[in-house]
Amino acid sequence: MVQDFSVSLQRSFWNQWNASTREKAIDVVSTAQAQVICRWLSSLRRQDLDILDVGCGAGWFCPQLTHFGRVTGTDLSDEVLARAKRRVPDVNFVPGDFMNLDFSANAFDVIVTLEVLSHVADQPAFIRKLAEHLRPGGYLMLATQNRFVLKHFNRVPPPAPGQLRSWVDRRELRDLLEHEFDVLELFSITPRGNRGIMRVINSRKLNWPVRALVGDRLEKLKEAVGLGWTLMALALKRVPL
Question: For the whole model, what pTM was predicted?
Fold first, then answer.
């Protein structure tokens, strides 16, 4: 049976998903991703940036991004973005399929994209288009699911109709980015697992004596060895010679 991944079916899925999740609450994984992005943005020491949030969903992160400049948010979820426009009038929300939208070349200083890469059909083309809309020397700040951790240590429901899913591991992500960018940082965050050895390692009940002794250093160690649910990448668009 051939699966239907038409844009209309994807739009229907993401409208429903965002309405039932991101419009109601933001989980700890997304919050941690946002904290990393805000740290990177703060390090630029600018408040006049042109920022594009690709796959902004319900626009939940856009208000924080406005502290650093002018923000445009885009997502396939047109119904959700219509509501986001009313909630966050200071952000320019543009609904549509990112791969078919024209934001002009070299239009942005920073592009943020959280957990979008795994849901696009042509990942190399997606990365090229992100680079196209960045000014030379602009920054890509990306979060995506860590295939190694999700595949081996987590039970994840199968994709729903209209939900594309193609996770990457750290090496694959670096390979994708290095065609257009210099990768400045690439690491994992938010260790979690509900299957196999990670279920034991992450159990607060079983590991409370260790946690009492070392605090969050155990979590930092798991992140450092690549056991985080999320891969975070900071990349710099290359300046043409």
Answer: 0.90
Q: Is the dihedral of CA 87, 7, 157, 125 positive or negative?
A: negative
Residues 62 and 22: beta-carbon distance below 8 Å: no
Q: What does DSSP assign to residue 98?
A: G
Note the Cα 57 to chain centre separation in Å: 11
pLDDT digits 0-9 by tens, 162-194:
999 999 999 999 999 999 999 999 999 998 776
Closest by CA position to 219, among listed 237, 198, 236, 238 = 198
Overall average pLDDT of the 90-96 stretch: 98
Q: Tokens 């699966």: give the residue.
A: 3
Domains and CATH numbers, the chain: 7-148+160-192+229-237 (3.40.50.150)
R_g of the chain computed on alpha carbons: 18
